[in-house]
């Protein structure tokens, strides 16, 4: 069971862990897939070695041990599977735990409304579950995404079948076991492994009432299309190309920190990253000097070491894709101020890992591919601007709308810019913090629906109106 995986962890170091336990969770226990075919290797990003064989087809039809106690072990597994640094993985597990606590608390606060009607009649509303919800996760925050989707779903009385990304199948099943230990009835939270085919089966299943998806825009469109056929509700957390606007009156030190937070968490593989960094021309030289100095100082390497600040990208094709964006940016006239190359750590066991040096691009223009498309890697594009009006117009000139940020000491400007930016979140004088109390989700092609915050209850429940007559029926016939 989970212990089997978790018990190997105390002595674990990068390159030593092999996972052999089944990773599907059905009817209260780990189970092997019914058809053991199409096994695909899952690679450890830091070493490039296979550490698990995942069967992609699932044909099944038909006193709590706190998460906080398992925190470090889950974080280590997350690192081995995803490649992010242990420092970040621990934060991710904490956020997952806070999310579960938050919605467990909100469960008892679900309430309807009482409406008085003429003649003593009245009506009330009830929040009821939707039924079976499907969660489809991405590989950048495997455990956290499973928690963000399942916690509100279960709090509202639904069941959830969760499908992790086939690149990061390892930790969702541990969440299932934690729920079981906490008393969640068998079958209420299941984990099904697989890729597009499994995701399609889940989205098309007639007994599924809702799909909550995190991933790319093209796949999100397919999920929406399939769900539409069954009139299923959908939450879509898709990609982004978010603007971060830095005005000359900012606290420069904080703005630089914010730009790093906006670009380099999880090796830059974060949907809400502020990858278009607009800097007011007057402070461009100081900003670039400081941001480059700090970017060069980011320690890339073994993600299980406490000192490491940036680990490995998710897989080889993705690393090549990100490096390809940098090459294309150069061809289109961008200047690489630092990084943007494959990085080979000195530790021999990491030579085949998917590491790259974090990159800052200068001389960028709005029409460049690196400025228009989601790179999903550690690549920051810096763009100069003159006026507030101009920068807001340029910031909004994108089909995405997930997040945005502004650094300024002018409080009126900060709120005006926040109002005018077309994005689901605007950070003022910070970036990429994820308090569970705060709704998270997109505008435009970054999706719709929300995760986190009280409002998410509305996306995992339906409202029933009960009308009560206290007198005689008024009969027209
Ligand atoms: N919004 C975000 O947080 C994320 C965005 N991305 C973006 O997407 C790009 C591609 O990454 P992928 O992992 O291939 O993303 P993807 O969007 O294809 O996959 C996300 C999830 O959807 C599942 N899936 C794939 N095809 C499906 C289908 N037809 N029906 C139902 N489920 C399906 C996958 O198995 C995975 O669990 C990345 O390079 C990045 O730009 C990737 C991960 C997270
Ligand atoms: N902690 C932020 C998660 C955002 C994302 O899913 O990419």
TrEMBL record:
Q: Does the keyword Cell membrane apply?
A: no
| GO terms of molecular function | oxidoreductase activity, acting on the aldehyde or oxo group of donors, NAD or NADP as acceptor
Which positions, given as ranges, span the membrane? none
Which superkingdom, per the lineage?
Answer: Eukaryota
Give the Aldehyde dehydrogenase domain ranges. Answer: 67-466
Q: Show the InterPro entries listed in the entry.
A: Ald_DH/histidinol_DH, Ald_DH_C, Ald_DH_CS_CYS, Ald_DH_CS_GLU, Ald_DH_N, Aldehyde_DH_dom
> Which PANTHER family did the record assign?
ALDEHYDE DEHYDROGENASE-RELATED
In its UniProt entry, what is this protein called? Answer: Aldehyde dehydrogenase 9 family, member A1a, tandem duplicate 1
Gene transcribed to yield this protein: ALDH9A1
